[in-house]
Predict the 3D structure of the following.
Amino acid sequence: MLITEVNIVFKAGDGGDGKVSFYKYRRGPDGGNGEKGGSIYISPTTDIYALSPFSRTKKIEAENGKGGMSNTKNGKAGKDLEIKLPVGTIITDKESGEVFEITADFKRFLFCKRGEGGRGNYEFRSGANTTPKFAEKGQAGQKRSLHLNLKLIADYGLIGFPNAGKSSLLKELTSATPKVASYPFTTLEPNLGELNGQIIADIPGLIQGASQGKGLGIKFLKHIEKVSLLLHCLSCEEKEPQKAYQTIRKELENYNPNLLKLPEIILLTKADLRSKAEINSYLKALKGLKKEVLPVSIYDWESLEKLRALFFKHESLSE
Ligand SMILES: Nc1nc2c(ncn2[C@@H]2O[C@H](COP(=O)(O)OP(=O)(O)OP(=O)(O)O)[C@@H](O)[C@H]2O)c(=O)[nH]1
Ligand SMILES: [Mg+2]
């Protein structure tokens, strides 16, 4: 599943404590130094699934440094951690309020600073105090409580009435696993999937009056404002396909007239429910719209191949 939002704590390793210790027979100090902990670095990745491992964990910690030992032996340094975050991630430090955005040209960045090791009592010997009975504590590694929010800019947007088969198509075309059910408003939050490096967004169904706040649709229209292609899903179950199509277009227009300027194709969904002749009469009824119309069915492999081919054509045209 694509994870786009997590709360997590990143913590750099603490430094090891210095040791208080004395040579057995000569009475001088021999406590070694603690070593530094590991720092946490962040860097960008194009893997949009990179937040997924964080959904099962609350804290990511770099190794602590080990404490000093007798015989002036120092501890062992903790290993640094490098965390790759998907391009488009907005990191908010919940305590300081600082915000970082992972862009494609983001350079590897020291994000949580290690704690330095403490000095052992050997380091504190002097003429005035030949037997120091103290050592330094290691410093704490930096800890940050974070909110990570991946804002993907979708390339394709699936829109249409509730129950039109939008989520079913996303499921067939990508590895996303959205909920699909035979009732309206199954999808309550946008689902995202990836096909050939392109992001497809499936948003909750729109209904008449959506632009005035009816149903769930309106607050999700912002996710499709920047797509390069709208996939307008129109079910073969619609009795008046032209009218159904225009209802959705009107809602888009009321929300933001620019949405009407986006390239759009009509997917005549659930084509398996109708005969060839019926599909042809649908195509005829939609001809006046002067839009590309593709009958598709999740049960017809060939129709899905045609849809994939259409995506690839669109991609190569927009490159
Ligand atoms: N026969 C047939 N049924 C389909 C097809 N695609 C989807 N369905 C069914 O139609 C119903 C609705 O599918 P969804 O994919 O949940 O529809 P949706 O557009 O995402 O619906 P909302 O999330 O409510 O907006 C489910 O029962 C699906 O199994 C298809 O190609 N053929
Ligand atoms: Mg859905």
About this structure: The helical segments are 166-173, 241-255, 276-287, 301-318. The chain has two domains: 1-151, 156-318. The two ends are 28 Å apart (CA to CA).
